[in-house]
TrEMBL record:
Enzyme Commission (EC) number: 2.7.7.27
NCBIfam families: glgD
Family the entry assigns: Belongs to the bacterial/plant glucose-1-phosphate adenylyltransferase family.
Matches recorded under Gene3D superfamilies: Hexapeptide repeat proteins, Spore Coat Polysaccharide Biosynthesis Protein SpsA, Chain A
Enzyme class: transferase
Keywords per UniProt: Glycogen biosynthesis, Nucleotidyltransferase, Transferase
GO biological process terms on file: glycogen biosynthetic process
Originating species: Clostridium pasteurianum DSM 525 = ATCC 6013
Domain of life: Bacteria
Annotated Glucose-1-phosphate adenylyltransferase/Bifunctional protein GlmU-like C-terminal hexapeptide domain residues: 295-362
Domain named Nucleotidyl transferase: residues: 21-154
One Pfam family linked to the record: Hexapep_GlmU
Name of protein: Glucose-1-phosphate adenylyltransferase, GlgD subunit
Record SUPFAM superfamilies: Nucleotide-diphospho-sugar transferases, Trimeric LpxA-like enzymes
Length: 380
């Protein structure tokens, strides 16, 4: 167990391609799989690995995140010693780099008794045991270990990720970007469909090394982003790479968010994500069970508590307190909390944010690769 590790969960994440779901919330607090939020996976992975000191750094739109996390009780982080620490910079239109955010709270790092750090983000969804990665890091004697995942070059759901170039002895030589590859390029064989080493944005390092990197950023002023500082100084730092071989989703776009939810309807992926290296914990809500009426028709779907279902639901994910009226048809959809789908409405390939009402006989259809998004409270 990683009792000598603290964790820094950095929520300064790229929202450019998922803004319709992040106008009033962070990526970390977007609902996923009906009952969960994206941040639940990062927190649960840390807790299941034995980390008991977690600092969350976020700069804006944190109300729903703080409401969800609370004191950290669902993750056993409501402690007198160690526990959960949230550092929030609340002005909605403010901009603070993660270096600036952490610099303003260096006392937290200095006062923490742990000697080693896991620095991570929330947008990578997986179920990982950090114990093996930490053991690999400590035995290697390197300054930093970056956890990565091999993907196919043509996998567009990991676009804009950082790509690690790794030597035979697992050292990181350089870092680049994963560019989006079109089907046209694939058909013309302009690139090979090989593997890319996608950085999971998880860094394992000593606390002294983290402090030295932060001091370098502050003194030189060259880097406002902690990850960029590490990536651009690979030749000066002694950096290692550890391969994660399980399921991974990267939530940085509407398409990747939709695909991650649809993947969770696959029984094998669902079992791995929620049970493989420990359970995924979330905020407990005291809700009545979902009621399936006699004319309900539900197949291959994840349904949270408190729903009322009278219509047809196929290959979909419903969050809490969703109402599906008689005659309504929901297919390949992600429907968030408090939505009401009225009678004879037909929905296909749709993401519906919280508290929307779809009128009677309404027909809405997206594409499996380009789902239609109904923003929060935009329909009543």
């Amino acid at each position: 167990m990683l009792s000598n590790y603290m964790a820094i969960l950095n929520l300064n994440e790229n929202e450019d391609n998922i803004k319709s779901l992040t106008k009033n919330r962070l990526i970390a607090s977007i609902p996923v799989a009906g009952r969960y939020r994206i941040v639940d996976f990062a927190l649960s992975n840390l807790i299941n690995s034995g980390v008991r000191n977690v600092g969350i750094f976020t700069q804006s739109k944190a109300r729903s995140l703080i409401d969800h996390i609370g004191s950290g009780k669902p993750w056993d982080l409501d402690r007198k010693i160690n526990g959960l620490f949230i550092f929030n910079f609340g002005e909605r239109n403010s901009y603070l780099s993660d270096v600036e955010m952490i610099k303003n709270n260096m006392e937290y790092i200095y006062r923490s008794k742990q000697d080693k750090v896991i620095l991570c983000s929330s947008s990578m969804i997986c179920n990982i045991d950090y114990n093996e990665a930490a053991k690999f890091h400590e035995e290697s004697g390197k300054d930093i270990t970056i956890i990565y995942k091999k993907i196919k070059s043509s996998n567009n759901y990991f676009r804009d990720c950082n790509i690690l170039n790794i030597s035979n002895d697992s050292s990181v030589i350089s870092v680049g970007k994963n560019i989006k590859v079109t089907e046209l390029y694939n058909r013309k064989n302009l690139i090979s469909d090989g593997n890319e080493n996608v950085s999971m944005e998880v860094f394992i390092l000593d606390k002294d090394t983290l402090i030295n990197i932060l001091n370098t950023c502050i003194k030189t002023g060259y880097w406002a982003d902690l990850k960029d500082c590490i990536y651009n100084n690979i030749t000066d730092l002694n950096v290692n790479a550890y391969e994660f071989k399980g399921y991974l989703s990267y939530i940085n776009s509407i398409n990747s968010y939709y695909k991650a939810n649809m993947d969770m309807l696959n029984l094998d992926i669902n079992k791995e994500l929620f049970f493989n290296n420990g359970l995924i914990y979330t905020k407990i809500m005291d809700e009545s069970p979902t009621k399936h009426f006699s004319n309900a028709d539900v197949s291959n779907s994840l349904i949270a508590n408190g729903c009322l279902i009278k219509g047809k639901v196929t290959n979909s994910i419903l969050s809490r307190r969703v109402i599906i009226d008689e005659g309504a048809e929901v297919n390949n959809c992600v429907i968030m909390q408090g939505c009401h789908i009225k009678s004879n409405a037909k929905l296909s390939n749709i993401i519906i944010d919280k508290d929307n009402i779809i009128d009677k006989n309404k027909e809405l259809k997206g594409d499996i690769d380009f789902p239609l998004v109904i923003e929060k409270k935009s329909l009543h």
